[in-house]
């Protein structure tokens, strides 16, 4: 009998000014185009492994800046019940939109990568509003075994990208996780519209790591069970680094952080990481005035699986105290 992730609802949380700046920069077109009413009240449908629901959640939308000129012009607060669902083929376009800049400007087999994500239904979730006519994908999270999928074109191209981007002080560690240790390494992929309510994050990551644990016992073959016995996770994300910190010419002005994380959980992952490196991004520009002194950088982190428990506790504390 399939196990069910826990349901959770939480208080309404507001976004920080920098969180709003992120929303101005990166909101995904397909998700935003659906927000046409000032208020939506939806109820969640069952998923095959149970449903995770956060009710009466505030979704802030902004239209001052966007990735596309044909984004819908809507500004305000949307009330909605978000639900976690198992990935399915119909989610292809929504997931692909959220991954458009995952490897910066690299031309790679993104469609094949999306197919891997959607094909792994026992571990991973997509976030939607059930009665949304187009079934828009607002977020997803998954963990892919780099050894299991090592012969897929998209994974080979992703490894090539990482090895080319890494700095001189980490290539041996990176090569090890991408090579001989790949069978115990999970590529943790988490993408979303950046103004998604933050109270969704703890139950979303709880569901992921619970499913990873369950898969080590519930998958139909021993080989598949072992493929989820991760010892390390690798993740690719984005940060904004102050230009003075990049040039190492002194401190930034009062009140300006040297690094701004595009996703709050990335700061926790970064602190817990065994190693990390950043790299220049060529396909993304800063347009929000609050970030005019910052440069976008890619961030690659490796986190030992034994740190997952600490991460979950710290993420709950971070969101609960916000």
From TrEMBL:
Listed InterPro entries: BCP1_family (IPR025602)
Any Pfam family matching the protein: BCCIP
Signal peptide: none
Basic and acidic residues composition bias: residue spans: 34-45, 53-68
Region (Disordered): 32-71
UniProt similarity note: Belongs to the BCP1 family.
Name by which UniProt lists this protein: Protein BCCIP homolog
Organism name: Cinchona calisaya
